Amino acid sequence: MLRPQLLPSRLIPRAACRAYPRIQPVPRFYRPAMSALKRQKSAKDVPYELLYWPGIPGRGEHVRLALEEAGAAYTDTAQIENGVSEVAAQIAESNVGDDLNPPPLAPPILRHGDLLISQTSNILLYLGPRLGLVPSEEDEAHPDALYKVNGLALTALDGLSDEVHDCHHPIASSLYYEDQKEEAKRRSKDYVENRLPKFLGYFERVLQGKASGEGPWLYGGQLTYADLVLFQCIDGVKFAFRKATSAAEKSGKYAHVFKLYSAVKERPRIQAYLASKRRQDYSNGIYRYYEELDFGPEGRD
């Protein structure tokens, strides 16, 4: 299965094509309309626009969680008719951007006023201060908090998202899972035995450190977007590697990590979002379940 985030810009994911058979080819000389208004960096009355594939939570889910937790007004192409066409147009080879923005390579993409940016961590870096999901710059107790929070989010995305994807696609993203099943078994077994404990152990240390502060959060004693990223990563790993995460939780070695996971899940806005139709089911995205890859501490038995 092709990974939508790394598709050549002339292609649309197979799943999207099946779900939206009437998608029309992108015009050869497509160029997004340019706004005559000055780029609005932080206007609160301008809704955010998330551009991402329908049918999978994917990397766009981290952005959704931040927007949902903050109660921000936003639109999502995954939830609107023919939204996939807008995503495809943005990553088309004919799109050269506009006077202010280079063209994005792949979604997720965020549009805010005249600003258009891509890359999950970059979007969260932009949204964090605007949504109150990092300590403010005036907080002298937490200097340069944004970069510390961003580092934590990047680490979670590295080890609990990107590496999980590579478990079922260890050879090439352009190949189907069925083309690399044996390699996927080897990669998944190693991930469960070595990499997953490494990253869970790291975040357990972070949560026990002084910089974590009071409460269940990663930094500064308050919820930040890094907590939301870690929540989504843990949730995805729990789906993909059920035996390993169940054993990890029961072991008690990572009590603070799973306490954070539960604390995020219980937040009112997150709880409402998870129960809504806006929360998409896992399918053929980053987090997939294959029984033959569901290794536990003692193998698959």
The chain-level structural class is mainly alpha
Helix content percent band: 40-55%
**β content, as a range?**
under 5%
Strand arrangement in the largest pleated sheet: 2-1-3-4
CATH architecture of the largest domain, by name, is Up-down Bundle
What features would you describe in this structure?
Strand 1, helix 2 and strand 2 (74-76) form a beta-alpha-beta unit. The protein has helices at 14-19, 60-70, 83-90, 120-130, 145-168, 181-208, 225-240, 242-251, 255-265, 268-274; strands spanning 48-51, 74-76, 109-112, 115-118. By secondary structure, it is mainly alpha-helical. The chain has 2 domains: 4-130, Glutaredoxin (3-Layer(aba) Sandwich); 145-293, Glutathione S-transferase Yfyf (Class Pi), Chain A, domain 2, CATH 1.20.1050. It is globular. It has a 4-stranded mixed β-sheet. Helix 2 packs across helix 7 (225-240) and helix 5 (145-168) runs antiparallel to helix 6 (181-208). 44% of the residues lie in helices and 5% in strands.
